[in-house]
Design brief:
278 residues, mainly beta, Lipocalin, 2 domains, 11-stranded mixed β-barrel, 2 helices, 15% helix
């Protein structure tokens, strides 16, 4: 209950931001951060308790970023993913995402995912998934960067065999942290850094899709060679269920290999990590 009270109080303060003292806003953001992160950490064991024996997936990701006009970043993400067990499937995703930085604490996000999935044992699907979101940069300019990402996405499925469409709206909430290992700041070159986050994806509508509700926990390591070039390896545990009140029916161990390229160098390092909403 404390977490929800804190959240409501902070959101009310954010709505009154122009009249707030900056120090009070900063304190409110810290309360929000701690409440969310503590709630996430406490929920992880409960979420994993009923998971089944896992499947295994490989994801290969290329992310091309272009920063412009001081406050904008356009990311083009290309992802190939596949299931290693039978029955096999593979998917190709393309996601353009535009980030707009309001200030050090708030970013607005808009994007669209185009996804084609080939199912060996059933029908193939094509999905169009537009989304809007906001990112709260809780600790900008600090050694450890903590962020909260809230998104609302509309999932539009096309069954390529029957040509029928299905639409569902799905909220997503993620708490994440980026931790420098061999440097004092994420914005230094030749840097090793750690990644950790937890995310809930859930639907409130009745849909025929299996596993529409998911919980994801990720841990990974990255290497920033320079501002323009970064490599990441991420292990993600994904647990899925059909209904929001049901037990988990499926679990996946996912190994993600990611390459990030920033096409245009900046004169000054950014205070956000830009990109990586997937």
């Amino acid at each position: 209950m404390y977490h929800w009270v804190s959240l409501c109080s902070v959101l009310e303060m954010i709505a009154l931001k122009p009249r707030l003292n900056p120090s009070r806003l900063k304190s409110s953001m810290k309360i929000l951060s701690r409440s969310f992160l503590l709630s996430f950490l406490m929920a992880i064991p409960l979420q994993l308790a009923h998971a089944q024996s896992p499947n295994h997936q490989l994801w290969y990701e290329l992310m091309l970023n272009y920063s412009f006009a001081g406050s904008f970043n356009l990311e083009n993400a290309f992802v190939y993913s596949t299931l290693l067990e039978s029955p096999r499937w593979y998917a190709f995703d393309y996601t353009p995402t535009l980030d707009y930085s309001i200030d050090n604490h708030f970013d607005l996000i808009a994007g669209n995912t185009f996804s084609y999935t080939s199912q060996v044992s059933s029908y193939n699907t094509f999905e169009i998934r537009p989304f809007l979101g906001v990112r709260f940069n809780v600790t900008p300019n600090q050694r450890i960067l903590t962020k909260i990402l809230l998104r609302l996405e509309q999932r539009n499925f096309l069954n390529l065999d029957t040509h029928d469409w299905e639409t569902v709206v799905r909220p997503r909430a993620r708490a994440e942290a980026v931790i420098p290992i061999n440097k004092k700041s994420y914005f230094e070159d030749k840097l090793w850094y750690g990644l950790i986050d937890a995310e809930w994806l859930f639907t409130v509508d009745d849909v025929e899709e299996r596993f529409a509700n998911r919980f994801r926990a990720r841990i990974g390591i990255g290497y920033r060679l320079s501002y323009t070039t970064r490599f990441e390896f991420i292990y993600m545990a994904q647990h899925s269920k059909s209904g929001i009140d049901q037990d988990f029916e499926s679990s996946d161990n996912i190994f993600r290999f990611r390459f990030k390229q920033y096409i245009r160098n900046k004169k000054k390092p950014s205070t956000t990590t830009s990109g990586g909403v997937n």
